[in-house]
Amino acid sequence: MSILIDEKTSVIVQGITGRDGSFHARQMVGDGTKIVAGVTPGKGGQKLDDVPVYESVADAQRNHTVDATVIFVPPRFAAGAIKEAADAGVPLIICITEGLPVLEMVEAYRYVKDKGLRLIGPNCPGLISPGKCKIGIMPYRIHKPGDIGVISRSGTLTYEVVYNLTTSGIGQSTCIGIGGDPIIGSSFTDLLELFEADADTAGVVVIGEIGGEDEERAADFIKNKMTKPVVGFISGRTAPPGKRMGHAGAIISGGKGTPQAKVDAFNDAGVAVADKPDEIPGLIRKALGR
Amino acid sequence: MNIHEYQGKEIFAKYGIPVHDQAVVTTPDAARQAAERMGTTVVVKAQVLVGGRGKAGGVKLANTPEEAEARARDILGLTIKGIPVQKVMITPASEILQEFYVSITVNRTTKDLVLMMSKAGGVDIEDLAVNRPEEIIKFPIHPTDGIDTPALERALTDVFGKPDLVNQAKDVVAKLYQAFMDLDCSLVEINPYALVPADDGEKLVALDAKVNFDDNALFKHADVEAIRSPEELSADETAAKAAGLSFVSMDGYIGCMVNGAGLAMATMDIIKLYGGDPANFLDVGGSSNPEKVVNALKIITGNPKVRAILINIFGGITRCDDIATGILEALKQIDLKLPMVIRLIGTNDEEGRAILKGAGLDSFESLGDAVERVVAAAKG
Fold it and tell me: Fewer Cβ within 10 Å of end Cβ, chain B: N or C?
């Protein structure tokens, strides 16, 4: 098992004909994901290799089962794409696009939530259950099937951590990048809950960064609700206050979101915190007694 | 994006939020003239984009135009948190009967907007938030339904008490919310929102203004982008912004080029752990574009403090071959004399490494090895 996605998940790609959308649609097909259709307004009827392209999510849905959608459309249209997927009732919506205006995202978040659907991202690498399904932009071959869950606010830093796990012989059940924006669809806590309930996940790695309080909330959940061991990493320990460090969410402001507060919260919850990504495999082994 | 107090007050005035008269000047002489024109005791306030101005000596009272000139001279000579003061605001001083606090921001946890209010506003609001959080009322605003007016009136009554003040505050909250939504703000804050004597009793006035904008929405607001203060960004940061790169200047000597913000932060952290000091945060971004690499290397090598360069790329949406092509292109345009350490892994890494190899450049797979090498090279 794994969380959210497996080998049966049927996926569509919104923005499939763009530079990034087409490249990563092909990558996902090559990595074994069931990409059943793509959507680009104005390009309905075309094909990307063997994948049919439709005018809208609703059109794609009339011809295919759609369990999940992955969005690559440009930032100014991305909130609209999320709402379109929600209108069609797609249960799992993954938004890769970065740079969405925050107020549009506040509205889109509520829109998806009110329909009882799940959103991952925006500004995220997507998710992967190695050997089963990949919905996103991560390089497939650094992963390896196994029993460790990975949740991260970052993209490439997640790859770094996964690469260290895999080269140390530790496989992953599901790896999820939740995104680096202030408003994101799924939090650490939402996903920790799923990993805790997943019979095939033995432990979890949580990769946080400066800004916000999501790590502190995760620590609270781990302390009170989780039985499985968790290992943590916090990036941005050298970041100066008041400067936005790339991610729209990564800023230390008004004394909130400091790395030390997050490390302290993790330690208080019994989470071992690595100083460098290459220490994570050792900490996971130790936590699992392997 | 952040703007000055005086610019924030100009926006407030446009939306009909009560503010005092103000003049922004860059010389002591002009400060004296402004105080003469106002004909009353004035406050001279440093206009810098950092908090804690008052505690740094950047806010002073002046009873006469001559005093205003002297205080302006003092303040224009200050450097507050590393930023030299270039402008001061002259504004009439008021007798303050009480200081309130009002702000609207995005609540990341509840994922809606929040109106925050307190009857204990003023310079110590951040301490209050930590030590007596119950004295700050947090009133949620639904992102599509907007403000729940009856509930707002109850909350305002708790904070402002008298019906007359509640009505004034209600009007200001509505205008503040309108500005927040119209301009895609990430924060609008009035602190202090002050009760001052008026001809017909008492009135509430915005004595300070803090307005921050959502960088992701600036494409909709050319008028906002147009008032950006040059001193918000260093020269390198301005060049990086024009090139579409996410860049922050730091104090160290190892120039960094990384893809992805999280990995870029972690790379800086690891450089520190290995005994080095990063010169910058630089995220070349998601989609790969060789020209970005060229621009990034030009900015990094333009910093005289840089003694060695680390390129750390973990390809996902970024393709390592594009990065490698960009590096070679940059080396044609720049006469690079500094040691450069390249770490390349992920999407199309074999192609990328082959391109580098063809030009006689080595690259690492392990980040730890690459950081160790660059720190050693910088210490030479």
Answer: C
- Select the residue of A160, A254, A278 nearest B314 (Cβ to Cβ): A160
Contact B316 A248 (CB under 8 A): no
Active-site residue A247, yes or no? yes
pLDDT in tens, B158-199: 999 999 999 999 999 999 999 999 999 999 999 999 999 998
The model carries a pTM of: 0.92
Residue A288, Cβ density class (10 Å: 0-12 exposed, 13-18 middle, ≥19 buried): middle
Contact residues on chain A for B106, CB-CB shorter than 8 A: 102-103, 106, 182-183
Residue B230 has what pLDDT? 78
For residue A207, what are the β-bridge partners? A152, A233
pLDDT at A254 over 70: no
CB-count burial class (<10 Å; 0-12, 13-18, 19+) for B341: buried
The residues of B carrying an active-site annotation are: 101, 189
Q: What is the mean pLDDT of residues A140-157?
A: 95
Distance from CA of A167 to the nearest CA of B (A): 11
DSSP helix/strand/coil, A259: helix
> Is B168 within 8 Å of B203 (Cβ atoms)?
yes
Contact A276 B270 (CB under 8 A): yes
Interface predicted TM-score of the whole assembly (ipTM), two decimals: 0.90
CB atoms within 10 A of CB B17: 26
The SS3 call for residue B280 is strand
Radius of gyration of chain B (CA): 26
Residue among A107, A154, A159 minimizing CB distance to B261:
A154
pLDDT tens-digit series, residues A16-60:
999 889 999 999 999 999 999 999 999 999 999 999 999 999 999
The model's pLDDT over B34-54, given as tens digits with 9 standing for 90+, comes to 999 999 999 999 999 887 788
Asked whether residue B288 carries a pLDDT value surpassing 80, the answer given is no
d(C-alpha B351, C-alpha B332), whole Å: 20
Going along chain A from its start, the domains and CATH numbers come out as 10-120 (3.40.50.720), 139-288 (3.40.50.261)
